[in-house]
Give the backbone structure.
Amino acid sequence: MNAAAARRGAAAWPAALLWLALAAPPLRGALEASMSTHMLLQMPLLAASGFAAVRALAPPRRARALELAGGCVPPVLAAMLAASYWMLPRALDAALADGAAELAKFVTLPLLVGAPLALAWERLGAVGRGFVWTNLASMLAVTGWLYLAAPVRLCNAYLASGQHEAGAWMVRLAAAILLGWLAGLLVGTPAQRGEAPAGAGAAPTGCAPARRRSPRSPAGTPRAPSGIRATRPDSRA
Amino acid sequence: MTRALGASLLVVLAALAVFTWGTDGWSAFTGETARRERVLRHPRPLPAAVLEDQDGRPFELSDYRGRSLAVEFIYTRCPSVCRSLGTAFRQIRDAVAPQRLERDFALLSISFDAEHDDVPALAAWAAAHGADGRHWRVARVRDPARLAPLLDAFGVVVIADGLGGYEHNAAIHLLDRDGRLARIDDIEAPRSFLARAGLQQ
């Protein structure tokens, strides 16, 4: 990504397109037909649409929003808590049986999980990212184990076999996330490790210090102070 | 720092409120528990529907007004869970005093498999499980279009298992003397159903 694009942020249309595709009846029905795809494909993709939408905002706007939100801790908390709500079997059943709950799912997963994570993500340090990954893995492992071990069906809308399958996938995913995170710690680049680059400015609470960007430089000619690159540390991602 | 603390506190409080609301005060984490608690708090009137029993006799749920009625949902080809349902109903029938069965308590098994369960299929199932057609009737909904609203009112969700059968949230439903769905108990525990419904001898 070049500097101008980095300042502008990514394009917004992929996020909107993803959300619309997920909401359209064919894909919605297909993904909700099984518990595994409902929880492990549709829900993460809904969150991803919110994440992508925020990444489409210009970086100064994101920085302002993050400051308004009180730094990195409140958005990460919100994302974790909102995500854990949609792991409740009751929430899953409600989304299928009740149009209002389904609408709430389509609004809160992008807005309360994906968007706040995107606001905080690039400013999170190693500890912050580690918290997100390990917390996600433990949430998945515990819920997955519960779905595997429960002697009864927990969702009226899904078969017992589907519940076990979803549970097994959640446990596998949790293991993969943990392994990936550990691998990133051991062999990753500094950005993957979430380390703050040198030359850091003042950081919002809970965020890793990051370099300041000069505001509103003319397009294509970033007026970066000497020694500081104009691209975001993770603009490759 | 103050803003971070305030916002975090706000997030946690909002999440607490939503979780408390969404689980009825941290008690109902599944849709099934929620259904049972809702019915217990607010007994629910049921829609009218003409049923047809194993002898082909038409009747309605409202015919049971003045008595309490235990209702279960079945399909006659069910290999596993309905067998235990049938056993539970037989245990209940055998445990209730005969004079109460005459006077103020009855059992009803309703099939949700409109396609396969005709009157002869119901009769065969009734004979296999010991349903006498008097104190314990086995029935189907005569007009298939009336089935879905009835299941909805009970909160029963039936899903095809892909092998020609169904899975459903099997339970013992108790209708009170006013014909309202008043409590829902585990099919595995007919004894506690008897105790809670005050039917033990």
